[in-house]
Amino acid sequence: MLQWLIDIQRDIYLTFADHIKAFAAGGSWAALAAFLPMGIVFGAVHAMTPGHSKSVLATYLAGSSSGIGRSLAVSLILSFVHVGTAVLIAVLSLPLVSVALGSVGRAPLLENLSRGLLGLIGLWMLWRAATRAGHRHEGGEGAAVGIMAGLIPCPLTLFVMTFAISRGVPQAGIAFAVTMMIGVAVTLSFVAITVVLFRQQVTRLLETRPRLVAAFSRAIEATAGIILVAVAAREILVR
Asked: Domain limits at 38?
């Protein structure tokens, strides 16, 4: 399955590279625009492969009380920042390359910052579960999680942007990145909806026992917090 996803991405990327070359050689926007919708497929398939903070998103939403609307907002913010960060790094590569980029397709500084901030969110969730504090600020918290998780730039967006910039047509790379972002958002939104519906279904099964529901909610939130802290610590220490 993973190899199939990789093959699809490779085929789309190579075709896009040909379109970029043609556009740079004097091709029209109409010809490029006809291919851009493939960027949605590219982004959706790419987001199915390991990475892209799917586990972080699922873990946070499992431990929160966010409904589908807020969960979709978190996934959209994560997608926008994930792709947008890669675009900014590519466009501002000269001043950022020696600071943020350690190797091709990676940004260690931003990755460590993202993991560290997510670790803080995990500690906050642990404290809230232990003190039985409410969820009054969960909307802002969800947006913060989306931003923090999205700080890790999308490597394929970096490759696409770098290729387009090297051909002197960064605007074509940005256009494709926008469609990729839509595709990534589709996949992450599916993950968000699935997690929320599962959590809500479990809660309904326990709704006749309010104390059990409360204990279950705190346990899930505490577990999510522990996982976020553990993931943050592992990623920072291992890297």
From this structure: 2-238
Residues 84 and 181 sit within 8 Å (Cβ to Cβ):
yes
Listed in sequence order, the residues at least 6 apart from 21 whose beta carbon sits closer than 8 Å to its beta carbon are 167
The answer to whether 55 and 47 are in contact (CB under 8 A) is no
**Residue 175 Cα distances to 11, 17, 44, angstroms:** 19, 13, 16
Mean pLDDT of 104-121: 64
- Is the model's pLDDT at 135 over the cut of 60? no
Give, in degrees to the nearest 5, the angle at Cα 175 between 172 and 181: 140
Query: CA-to-CA distance for 66 and 51, rounded, in angstroms?
Result: 23
Whole-number Å distance between alpha carbons of 14 and 20: 10
Looking at residue 75, its pLDDT comes to 94
pTM for the full predicted model:
0.75
Number of domains in the chain: 1
- The answer to whether the CB of 128 falls within 8 A of the CB of 141 is no
SS3 103: strand
Nearest CA to 187 out of 48, 69, 72 is that of 48
Q: Which helix (H) or strand (E) holds 119?
A: helix 108-131
Read off the amino acid at residue 164.
A
DSSP letter for 106, please: B
- Report the alpha-carbon distance of residue 31 to residue 15 in Å, rounded: 13
| pLDDT at 138 (0 to 100) | 62
